[in-house]
Amino acid sequence: MKNKKFSWIISPDVQWDDKKELITTSLESGIDHVLDLKDIENIQKLGNISVISNDPNADIALVGINGEGDGTIPLSKDFSDSKDIELARNLKGEGKIVAAYVEIQNKDYEQLAVSIGKIVDYVILIAKDWTVIPLENIIADLQKDDVKIIAAARDVDEAKLAIETLEIGTDGILFKPTDFSTIKEMAKLIEDTSSNDYELKEATITNIKGVSSGDRVCIDTTSIMSVGEGMLIGSYSKAMFLVHSESLESEYVASRPFRVNAGPVQAYIMVPNNKTRYLSELETGDEVLVVNKEGKTRPVVVGRIKIEKRPLILVEAEYNGFKIKTLLQNAETIRLVTDKGEAVSVSEIKVGDKIKVFIDDNARHFGMAIDETIIEK
């Protein structure tokens, strides 16, 4: 599964009013990191923004620049000298978050990027003419290190190449916005490439029965969900049902397209980066995954969690001899998704019906997929 990608911007060399508009548009598009060498105080007033700079007050310390310039990022003439690596070590020793900037001019600079990448939190790679091979080499050499790799990109095509290289791709991209449309295009690219696609299976319902009451969780998000969208939820961490959102009208209640009536507090839910969490752990500001009937996903933010005691229903299904179960609220407005992609109420579903589920090949430990035998029943 893909890790969540991100993008940073370099402040363009324009007047402050124009720069302010571009940075504000970036922030509104979900891009909240700005690399800037001279307007750090003004930028920090615009919102919750992290500034990457060689300024002592920067949120992320930047090494590999000469500190003189007009808002661009000039390469230090002495970057290959060990003093820059020593500076990175010293900054890390002071407890600072550190980003290093390396212009890939030849093979020596590839090795420099790898060396300093083992020290810093972020390594930013710049190339006048990107070729895939240097990027592949650096990604391969640093894939086991705790560092985020960022590639500078001139346009969306270069950004797409960088974040898809070696299937793993860079963790992020850095670009200089020149207009509002470029910002929106880059933000859309990051959103699309960060989403995981889950292969949904068709499981057959084998049993449905009412059980006593339990503490049920409703997830109210800050986003609108469409018909066909819901969340992957289940009693087993490696086998989840696609529980439909309340985006459909009912004769009993109005639609709540921002909500998924998810299940009892102990149930698992799929969240970004192919991880799971217990429903009881979620709170305002957390991210969860919305999944559609084709298995495509998008992250959304939890607006609130509502827990109430409600009667429950046990739903059991089987896929290729593997039995899976979940508990849901026993109400006609709670729906699963059929093999035809249609929402069906738990009050109408029958033994023999086919529904969409996700079955993971791996077990999970603390929400992360691991290669281990764990029995859930």
UniProtKB/TrEMBL annotation:
Q: Which EC number(s) does UniProt give? A: 1.4.1.24
- Could you say which protein family the record assigns here? Belongs to the archaeal-type DHQ synthase family.
- Lineage top rank: taxon: Archaea
- State the protein's name: 3-dehydroquinate synthase
- The 3-dehydroquinate synthase C-terminal domain sits at 203-377
Q: Does the keyword Nucleus apply?
A: no
User: What gene name is given for the protein in this entry?
Assistant: griH
Q: Which GO terms describe its biological process?
A: amino acid biosynthetic process; aromatic amino acid family biosynthetic process
Segments forming domain 3-dehydroquinate synthase N-terminal: 4-189
Q: Example GO molecular function term? A: dehydroquinate synthase activity
Q: Does the keyword Iron-sulfur apply?
A: no
Entry keyword set: Amino-acid biosynthesis, Aromatic amino acid biosynthesis, Lyase, NAD, Oxidoreductase
Give a short account of what the protein does.
Catalyzes the oxidative deamination and cyclization of 2-amino-3,7-dideoxy-D-threo-hept-6-ulosonic acid (ADH) to yield 3-dehydroquinate (DHQ), which is fed into the canonical shikimic pathway of aromatic amino acid biosynthesis.
Q: Which organism is it from?
A: Methanobrevibacter filiformis
Task: List the Pfam families hit by this protein, alphabetically.
Answer: DHQS (PF01959), DHQS_2nd (PF26558)
